[in-house]
Amino acid sequence: MAGRAAVPEVIWARRERTGRGPKPAYTRADIAAAAVRIADAEGLDAVSMRHVAAELGCGTMSLYNYVPRKEDLYELMVDAVSGEHELWEPSGDWRADVMRIAHQTRALMHRHTWMSRLMSSLYGFSPNALRYLEHCMACLDPLEAPHGTKMELLAMVNGCVTVYVSNELAVAERTRSLPWSDEEEQAVRIAYLGSQIASGAYPRLAAAFMEDAGPIDLEAVFERMLGRVLDGFEPRA
Question: pTM for this structure?
């Protein structure tokens, strides 16, 4: 395309720092750690080249020698967090291992609440992410299915976890912004819902709520969601 200033580039294919001069003062790990600290404390929108440079104590333009684009900075952050995944010896029970993977990913996203916004195939093939993906595929060795199907399984589980956690975080954020307690908010909403169900206008919803009138067990819902996804990949007799 005429006038185009740059071509696509993968940061992992670049040297740690471009240009001549003395030994680099910072590594990519240093830069990623600084960006993650900012995102954890202030949110992803607070992450900028200027803010990261200030966190490191260097000039903004100097940072571009290490990280040419903000998208590259995001990729460094995703890779750094991916390195927190625990890699274990597969148990031989692929369902149990995938459940463990999903729970670990959920916990990681709660530690780094901005992470769900960067869950993209664009950032899914960094060094730490590749090591973890290979580990996940090893956990699926006992499953009799093509490798492409196993990749689909992992993508589907990751997508479900990301959406589930995003909803959890949204609810938590809204609750923190309320001038009253979460219990008071829930009581008002449950009372309103009860009045609507009692009106007789929603018989199917009334039947559904009557079947399970107790409090929702979010952990059990998470387990059921994952279990139903995995059921679809069980070998057929």
Answer: 0.84
